[in-house]
Structure of Cytochrome c oxidase cbb3-type subunit 4:
Amino acid sequence: MTHDTLVYLSKTVGLIWLMGFFVIVVIRAYNPSRRAAHDRAARSILKEQRSDE
């Protein structure tokens, strides 16, 4: 195999792999059944507000 062939294969396979990974991440992020988990994670970094203050 020549260097040019390896470069071509790495660029092609790498692009396909990254696009596949991106599609999986987008599907998981916008999946309606995961909304509760996303809301819980978003609220976990906020301070709890007490009503007596």
Summary: Residues 1-49 form one domain. The mean pLDDT is 88.
